[in-house]
Amino acid sequence: MKKNSKKVHKVENYSKPKTENRGKPSQLKNIQLEAPEIWTNSPPCVRLVKYLSDMGRHNYLHQAGKHSNKVDNNKRQENDLDTKLRYEYAQEIVEKLFSIQCESKRCFVFFFRSVDQEKVIYDFQEYIQNQEFLFIIHLIQPLLSQKFIEDLISILNSQDNSSSAVDLLLQSKDDPSKYSHIVQNFFIQKQLQTGLDKKTNKPNIEEVINEFEEFLKDPQTNQLVYDFVSEILRIFQSSTAYLPDINEMCEVVNDFQCIYQ
Lowest mean pLDDT: which of 90-104, 128-142, 246-260? Predict the structure, then answer.
């Protein structure tokens, strides 16, 4: 008799109707969500951030898990070690030669401002006459490093002569750390692509300085920087279709000091 009563009780439990919104917070319908105050969703800015991120963010992530095939697993481990050593070697150069402090191991970023860096507010109207360019750079500047903002000003002021911007960026400096992030970034890209035989030990900084000087003289470096400058200008120059009218642009530019302070 007791056995049957248990069965009936179980059937009754299964027959209960499912409660809607089960597991959801109480008063969910009364909760109002506000749109987050992000820096901008302007398409030209998004395109610019994506390009800079693709070009200037370098990080090595350890691959977890094992391959089912032992031979393939050993090969993958070998490739992972190769990549790891390349990134550790490159990070030494970034920190010691370019004086850029990396926030985590095997991760280094160009063009963007780190959370520890002070945010510099520019009056871009002193440097840039093009109102469309002015609007974009005002929106995006909180994300960028001071060094790259200065590079960006030079690039935008050379829109009719990209070669002059390239010459300025490659102009001789007395210390590798004083060169543009654009130039430094391309040098690090080259280091990451160099064979493992040179990456098994920590870099000899004197030798790396010589490599950097040779890199600056290489015609291919000039072409890399030229292509970078051209792409930046293309993003800015093709942005007209996305921009608001001139009155709204002027209003944003004039209010910028209050918005970001």
Answer: 246-260
Q: How far apart are CA 146 and CA 119, in angstroms?
A: 8
Do 84 and 192 meet the contact criterion of CB atoms below 8 Å apart?
Answer: no
CA atoms of 236 and 136, how far apart (whole Å): 8
- Arithmetic mean of pLDDT, 172-184: 94
Three-state SS letters, the chain:
CHHHHHHHHHHHHHCCCCCCCCCCCCCHHHCCCCCCCCCCCCHHHHHHHHHHHHHHEEECCCCCCCCCCHHHHHHHHHHHHHHHHHHHHHHHHHHHCCCCCCCECCEEECCECCCCCCCCCCCHHHCCCCHHHHHHHHHHHHHECHHHHHHHHHHHCCCCCHHHHHHHHCCCCCCHHHCCHHHHHHHHHHHHHCCHHHCCCCCCHHHHHHHHHHHHHCHHHHHHHHHHHHHHHHHHHCCHHHCCCHHHHHHHHHHHHHHHC
Look up tokens 């009218």; give the residue.
245
Q: Which residue has the higher pLDDT, 117 or 258?
A: 117
The pTM assigned to this predicted structure is 0.71
**198 pairs with which residues across the strands?**
none
